[in-house]
Design a protein that fits this description.
about 450 residues, alpha/beta, Alkaline Phosphatase, subunit A, 10-stranded mixed beta sheet, 4-stranded antiparallel beta sheet, about 25% helix, about 20% strand
């Protein structure tokens, strides 16, 4: 096991402006830009994000979600809690979806900031299974402005928005493309709001079917097929049964994934432009110099690694996410940070910068990493999953450390990968006698972190 890493860096001169929230009118503005199913390794294709965020902020190279699925991850973004804290393990009831999150709606980053004098807005995707409630005009507590997709499947056209309780339908005209509609709403909110604001802008892109804006359908014409070492993994004899049950991918299957991958990149082009529009609106309203902007995704996605094209698992492709934070009061940045950071850290970070509490949060504020004052940081974290009716992946608890990934399934199967030697997770070393000390440590650690475990799960040791 890797020992706790202590890193001491010099604090920058503007530290006081990071810590102090001040009276309501002087509190920093906060913007969360959340994409849907965007992998961590796709930011190269977004030149505006590179220019306005990456080159002006901190890129977290080791950012992860603690449950690689839409609804549980979004619940974690809103509260800072693990799935065992929020009770949201999946996209559907009884242990997931909007219905399972209802008891937590009274205490989210929106309610915390709203009580502190912020004007708050959610624009875009809220939670899975919100569609029926959205069509009935339901608006959760804490939101001053509510422009939420009132649908239960991802659509880029022919959808409905719940706008402050009124349902508005959009059709199939070019101006109805959802990313563009949501971006206009976000810009309008920034221009029309006085005082400190919190904007949660959540696009559907690049989630499947990953339909690009018409102007982007010819983009990336020469994109080469993606073939990492674990692509369509040939020898899966050391993998759990759910992976062994996946047949080797056919040429047709590979072509389908390649085409989808290209559409994902194409659909991110309008997201990229929308980031530029939001940054420009912050400039136009003299807010940019006092705004924290976070760009990230709700989970990653496999593009054929280990024969899998999906999420919900604990492999790197699904749990890693892009994360960039720009906060100008800290001064010029344009640097990368390698600490393990999580989606459950976002709500506590916003609370800290706004000078409010984050009751019930399991995550921690990222400010010590942003201002380079951290003397220590986490060296591992928990990943949870509850089996659903759709994917073959059994319920599991996992620990991802700086060096290892360990997974224990409800079936009793275990996986252990030394990521320093095997970054593509090709060799499961759970049965390797050399790794027995590490295996035992990981078993102890997963029991500490996965407490309580997912419904119906029992540890086999």
């Amino acid at each position: 096991m890797v020992a706790l890493c202590a890193i001491v860096l010099a604090a920058i001169p503007q530290l006081g402006s990071v810590r102090a929230a001040g009276p309501p009118q002087n509190r920093p503005n906060i913007v969360l830009i959340l994409t849907d199913d965007q992998r961590w390794d796709t930011l190269w294709s977004m030149p505006i994000v590179q220019r306005d965020l990456v080159h002006q902020g901190v890129t977290f190279k080791n950012a992860f979600v603690v449950n690689s699925l839409c609804c549980p991850s979004r619940a974690s973004f809103l509260t800072g809690g693990y799935s065992h804290t929020t009770g949201v393990y999946s996209n559907n009831p009884p242990h997931g979806g909007f219905e399972s999150f209802r008891p937590d709606e009274h205490s989210t980053i929106a309610t915390w900031l709203h009580k502190a004098g912020y004007t708050t807005a959610l624009i875009g995707k809220y939670l899975n299974h919100y569609g029926n409630a959205g069509k009935l005009g339901y608006v959760p507590p804490g939101w001053s402005r509510w422009v939420a997709l009132a649908i239960d499947t991802v659509k880029y056209y022919d959808y409905a928005l719940n706008i402050d309780g009124t349902v508005v339908h959009y059709h199939h005209r070019p101006q109805d493309y959802s990313t563009d509609v949501l971006a206009r709403q976000a810009v309008r909110f920034i221009h029309q709001t006085k005082g400190p604001l919190f904007l949660y802008y959540a696009t559907s892109a690049p989630h499947g079917p990953a339909r690009p804006d018409p102007r982007d359908t010819a983009s990336f014409p020469n994109m080469r097929p993606y073939r990492p070492p674990n692509y369509n993994e040939q020898d899966v004899s050391d993998k759990p049964a759910w992976v062994r049950s996946l047949p080797p991918m056919t040429l047709k299957r590979e072509e389908t994934i390649d085409a989808f991958r290209r559409r994902q990149y194409q659909s991110l082009e309008e997201v990229d432009r929308s980031v530029g529009q939001i940054v420009q609106a912050l400039k136009d309203t003299n807010r940019l110099s006092n705004t924290m902007i976070v760009f990230t995704s709700d989970n990653g996605l496999a593009w054929g690694e280990h024969r899998w094209a999906g999420k919900k698992d604990a492999y790197e492709e699904s749990i890693r996410i892009p994360m960039v934070i720009r906060y100008d009061p800290m001064g010029p940045q344009n640097r990368a940070d390698s600490h393990l950071v999580l989606n459950i850290d976002i709500a506590p970070t916003f609370a800290k910068v706004a000078g409010v509490s984050a009751p019930g949060a399991d995550g921690r504020s990222l400010l010590p990493l942003l201002d380079a004052s951290a003397s220590s940081w986490r060296t591992d974290f928990l990943v949870e999953h509850l089996k659903d009716r759709i994917a073959p992946i059994p319920t599991f608890c996992a620990v991802r450390s700086e060096q290892y990934l360990y997974v224990v399934y409800g079936t009793g199967e275990e996986e252990l990968y030394d990521l320093s030697q095997d970054p593509y997770e090709l060799q499961n070393r759970a049965s390797d006698p050399v790794e027995t000390p590490t295996l035992l440590q990981m078993r102890q650690r997963v029991k500490q972190l996965c407490n309580p475990p997912p419904p119906g799960f029992t540890f086999p040791f």
